[in-house]
Design brief:
Radius of gyration: 18 Å
Largest sheet: none
Order of helices and strands: HHHHHHHH
Number of helices: 8
């Protein structure tokens, strides 16, 4: 099921239909959240194993770091790159599309309906007003932190990274 959903998302993004930008953007945020939660679960697994015997502790010591690195550098990086490459978010002069840029203005040539335009305005406002907080969330994980601290620090990290890539 997951493979089908991701394949459909990729197909939708590759269509480069500008009117689908808000849908793909929202899907990317949801995927970033899901990936963060998977990283938290990996951290919880290791935390639980650390409570066991020394042999079990040694066997899983580097697991969260390796797993989180694989998620960050694999699916998250690939989807993020694909999104930016297909919509050319950094190239407004060549027809790129980045509605979160302040210079985007109220261009309506992207074909956004009223609901999508309102969502984009709200997201742009929230991102621009919270750049410092997003930068704070976009820090490397501390794998030696306790389970609750690890979960807290991971929450919003990949979403912040994705949102900051539009600024």
């Amino acid at each position: 099921m997951t493979t089908k959903v991701l394949a459909q998302l990729e197909k939708t993004m590759r269509s480069r239909d500008k009117s689908l930008w808000p849908t793909c953007f929202a899907a990317m945020l949801l995927l970033a959240y899901c990936m963060e939660q998977m990283e938290v679960l990996a951290g919880a697994h290791v935390h639980a194993a650390r409570m066991g015997d020394l042999e079990a502790r040694a066997a899983v010591e580097k697991e969260p770091e390796e797993y989180c690195g694989m998620v960050d550098d694999g699916p998250f990086a690939q989807l993020s790159h694909l999104f930016h490459a297909l919509y050319r978010t950094g190239r407004p002069d060549t027809g790129g599309l980045n509605p979160l840029r302040e210079d985007f203005g109220s261009r309506d040539d992207a074909g956004f309906d009223d609901v999508a335009s309102k969502m984009i305005r709200n997201v742009r406002e929230k991102v621009m007003n919270n750049v410092d907080m997003l930068k704070e969330r976009n820090k490397p994980l501390d794998y030696n932190a306790g389970q609750e601290e690890f979960a807290k620090n991971s929450s919003g990290r990949l979403m912040a990274k994705f949102l900051l890539s539009f600024v």
